[in-house]
Amino acid sequence: MMTQRTVFPLAAKFPTICTSEIAEIPAGAGRSAGTIQGTQISMASQERTARMEKIVALCKRRGFIFQSSEIYGGQNGFWDYGPLGVELKRNVRQAWWQDMVIANDPMLPDPAAPCGFNIVGIETSIIMHPQVWKVSGHYDLFADKMVDCREAKGRYRLDHVKGRWINAALAQKPAADGTPAAQVAAEDWLVTTTVDGPEAGDAITKRACKLFGVKSNETHKLAWKSELVSLTTATEQLDRVIAPEATAPGTLTPPRDFNLMFETYTGALQSDDNKAFLRPETAQGMFVNFKNVCDSSRVRVPFGIAQIGKSFRNEITPRNFTFRSREFEQMEMEFFCQPSESFKWYSYWRDRRMKWYAALGIKSENLLLREHHNSELAHYSVGTADIEYAFPFLDEGEYGELEGVAHRGDFDLRSHSEGKLDKSLNVEMGPDGQPKYRGSGKDLSYFDDQTRERFVPHVIEPAAGCDRTTLAFLCEAYHEDEAPDDKGVMQTRVVLRLHPKLAPVKVAIFPLIKKDGQPEKALEIYKAFKDAGINVQYDAQAAIGKRYRRMDEIGTPWCITVDGDTMKDGTVTLRDRDTLEQIRVPASEVVDLIAKRLR
Ligand code: ATP
Predict the structure, then answer these.
(1) How far is it, in rounded angstroms, from Cα 326 to Cα 464?
(2) To test the ligand 1 pocket, which listed residue (328, 394, 407) has its Cβ within 8 A of the most ligand atoms?
(3) Adjacent-strand bridge partners of 35
(4) Mean of the per-residue pLDDT values for the chain?
(5) Hey, how many other C-beta atoms are within 10 angstroms of the C-beta on 385?
(6) Is 70 exceeded by the pLDDT of residue 183?
């Protein structure tokens, strides 16, 4: 669900590498360590950057995530999931669906919940009636402010650019509009960058040195007039702003709104009448089907409607690997409840969703539940909390949103019934005195036949991103430790400690040697796993230690080795990825044993 889009900007450390779109911010500019305002960049920051680089490299090397259309130079903001990535993402979806849809039943209430409830699934179309987006507010409001640089042809999100004011007395050159150096020298200029975090100050210093011809060991000559400020504070002084890739001030256009919805046309004619939008969120599919679901299923308020599906946002600066993409998948649930009970449900869903991430292996110190301040809340929201994760591409102590849990009141059902609501939650009127965007006119209230009460339900919405969640699980799982090689010598190993439920491959089967009936026995066990529907791999190539490493690196929780003893006593070695413990178990029982551990 769209919330106010003024969350802190994320570091541009891992932008997509893209040659097909020229109006993008350069990759990784100013990434090197250094000093900012006298502060040494911490080792921790460098370690986090290095860690993220290794994760991105592993994703490509082992077939988790590839850049979309890579052989053509890539398409910025779009990603492909490879053979292992697709399994991991399916497991993330499955874990969410199990918890949100399958596990809930009014007859088996969760003791932490105000009462028992149902959640049903739905799958709605990506292109919906254009009125949906007018009424929901996306058509008018779903916009970021951006500026263009006339000199460098770059396009930047206003709130992603920051800079420091500097006395321009050192300027050697006239300004872009031809103003002589002597005149501009009396002014302060804002030297800007799109680099975030501790590296931003360093990047600005380097730019200033270059712009003013100051040597890197003479930075004391730079006459700074401010600490870091956002470009949002300088929109009235753009003539004195040196854009992130420009060589002189005054090259930025005034900020303008950039709607994030992708437009398309339905039918043969490309006219305004046929204009449609790729959905920027899945949530509206649930609201417009509220009545259909109530009329066709045996649900009673409180209940939820859940959906997993693709959403599209034409993000100005997609970056940080899959974190901010232009095509991504959401896992959203709209929970409809009695207005008087809504706050209890809000607290319940906020806490329950936090537990989900923890149960699947995210350490509590890397998770943050951040309640929005009143000033951050969308006008219809009486409470919103973000569940955030300490992604390694962020600075230490910073977190990025995985999921928003919002109390949305009756905003959505009322809007789709009456018409787009204004800030006071009245129907917004156009200049002709009629509703600016008409609702469907359908009655979307709910009649409770037990209490004989009619009301418009309030909505609690946990809205998660499948790609961000998958990325968080990958980041959390990535470890480097030591394990013995075939000769017993300790070696560094890369291991993905993914929760077994999420691991793309659950178990690997190895014959120790390729003779004495071992491959045949291993294949028999391999087939038994396949028959049980458990994702299994067979590997007979290379030394056993190497085969273990290959499996550790992709997060396979268990490896089974068929050896000489197997042929004598029917047992196999079962090796645990995390503890490295090896136990012998009867080959005939190993499938059941793993199936039990996966439950
Ligand atoms: P942000 O502030 O990061 O742009 P948002 O608050 O607009 O996100 P929501 O509209 O609440 O996001 O969407 C719900 C979830 O969808 C987010 O928590 C996130 O996990 C995911 N999501 C949103 N935008 C993107 C994107 N561009 N790329 C990947 N996932 C996204």
Answers:
(1) 16
(2) 328
(3) 40
(4) 89
(5) 23
(6) no
Type of residue at 383: G
In angstroms, rounded to a whole number, what is the distance separating the alpha carbons of residues 6 and 375? 11
pLDDT in tens, 110-139: 999 999 999 999 999 999 999 999 999 999
Q: What percent of the chain has pLDDT over 90?
A: 75
Q: Residue by residue, what is the 3-state secondary structure of 259-305?
A: ECCCEEECCCCCCHHHEEEECCCCHHHHHHCHHHHHHHCCCCCCEEE
Q: What is the pTM of this model?
A: 0.83
Token pair listed for 451: 């209490």
Asked whether 15 and 25 are in contact (CB, 8 A), the reply is yes
- CA–CA distance, 226 with 240 (Å, rounded to integer): 14
Q: Is the CB of 93 under 6 A from ligand 1?
A: no
Specify the pLDDT at position 141.
84
- 176: pLDDT confidence band, cut at 50, 70 and 90? low
Which among 1, 3, 80, 64 is positioned nearest to 307, based on CA atoms? 1
Terminal Cα distance for the chain, rounded: 32
CA of 426 to the centre of ligand 1 (A): 27
The verdict on the CB of residue 281 being under 6 Å from ligand 1 is: yes
**Residue 282, token pair as written in the block:** 């899945």
Nearest CA to 56 among 319, 327, 310, 360?
A: 319
Dihedral through CA 559, CA 564, CA 566, CA 572, nearest 10? -20
Convert the pLDDT of each residue in 525-567 to its tens digit.
Answer: 999 999 999 999 999 999 999 999 999 999 999 999 999 999 9
